[in-house]
Specification:
Layout: E1 5-9, H1 13-24, E2 29-33, H2 36-45, E3 50-54, E4 56-57, E5 60-61, H3 66-72, E6 78-82, H4 87-96, E7 100-103, H5 108-130, H6 138-145, H7 149-166, H8 170-173, H9 186-199, E8 203-205, H10 214-221, E9 226-229, H11 234-237, E10 245-247, H12 253-265, H13 267-285, H14 287-304
Parallel strand pairs: 1-2, 1-3, 3-6, 6-7, 8-9, 9-10
Antiparallel strand pairs: 4-5
Helix pairs in contact: 5-9, 10-13
Length: 305
């Protein structure tokens, strides 16, 4: 596998040198451009694996480069950086298709983590784009739902949702995707879920009842902002507005829509919740963390014996 190629477009020589040395020291190939014109020329000369793009450049806003870059690749990560707090330009960058934003100054570890996240998301998006909904034989479809009255009701709901989706206007239907996860191939099932979650801007688990809430835990580990029902084990994982957004009533569609919309309209807040969720999942939800807790409990018990 070839080393990732990163294009850095920034007119600050100190930042460019710092970033160049940091990334090359982590087995990445780096090209630096100091203006919009140079950046676009380097981009057209060779397609990078990732772009680090300053908002304020000598010949205009770096945000103007996002659209032509996105026209060439909708999966390539674009990380915006800036030493100034220009909210309007950050919002415009996210709307144009930027993958993430980092405010200067920052630690090298922060940039490396951010790059790993967006590169993982990019790879997952490629996987998702390659996935195709396969028409499965009718007998396999029936096996998925079984023959019980309860599962027949589930099938009826799915059929109703699919029917409503087909009635949507073309422009809306292009943005609505229904996935039927294969239950007879767990690896394919896991690959689809992983790709969907890593590509998602918001992950939703709107359950009426829940045990642990694995969908939430997986999304938190992937640094995705979550909107979920305040039921079952979900409330043990998420503190409202700290690690995600909780819905008191999963039947309240207006509140659900408002919660999702608030995160889509505020990428900075969505990113903050995603970071907090990742920290929470790392600290509390991993299997090895639980093992350490059990070991600590056992050690304390033996000490008292």
């Amino acid at each position: 596998m070839t080393d990732p190629y990163v294009l850095v477009v920034d007119d600050d020589p100190h930042f460019s040198r710092f970033t160049h040395d940091l990334l090359t020291g982590n087995d990445m190939r780096v090209v630096v451009a100091a203006s919009k014109a140079e950046g676009l020329a380097e981009f057209e000369r060779e397609r990078p694996s990732c772009v680090i793009l300053d908002i304020f450049l000598p010949d205009g806003s770096g945000v103007d480069l996002i659209r032509p870059m996105r026209a060439a690749s909708h999966t390539m990560p674009i990380i915006m950086v800036s030493g100034q707090s220009e909210v309007d330009e950050v919002v415009r960058a996210m709307k144009e298709g930027a993958s993430d934003y980092v405010k200067k100054p920052f630690q090298g570890e922060e940039l490396l983590l951010k790059m790993q996240m967006v590169l993982d998301a990019s790879h997952a998006k490629v996987e998702l784009d390659e996935l195709r909904i396969k028409t499965r034989p009718e007998e396999e479809y029936n096996l998925l739902f079984g023959m019980s009255d309860r599962m027949s009701k589930v099938q009826a709901v799915l059929d109703q949702v699919a029917s409503q989706a087909r009635r949507l206007p073309d422009a809306v239907r292009e943005r609505v995707h229904l996935f039927s996860l294969p239950m007879n191939d767990l690896q394919e099932n896991a690959a689809i879920v992983n790709a969907l979650q890593r590509r998602a801007d918001v992950v939703v688990q709107k359950s009426l009842a829940e045990g642990f809430g694995l969908t939430v835990a997986e999304a938190m580990w992937k640094t995705r902002p979550v909107v979920a029902s305040a039921v079952g084990g979900i409330v043990d994982q998420i503190a409202h507005r700290e690690h995600g957004l909780l819905l008191d009533d999963p039947h309240d569609l207006a509140a659900f829509g408002a919660a999702v919309e608030s995160l889509l309209r505020d990428p900075a807040e969505a990113a903050r919740l995603g970071r907090n969720a990742r920290e929470r999942a790392t600290r509390e939800l991993l299997g090895d963390t639980h093992l350490l807790h059990y070991a600590d409990l056992l050690a304390k018990t033996l000490a008292r014996a």
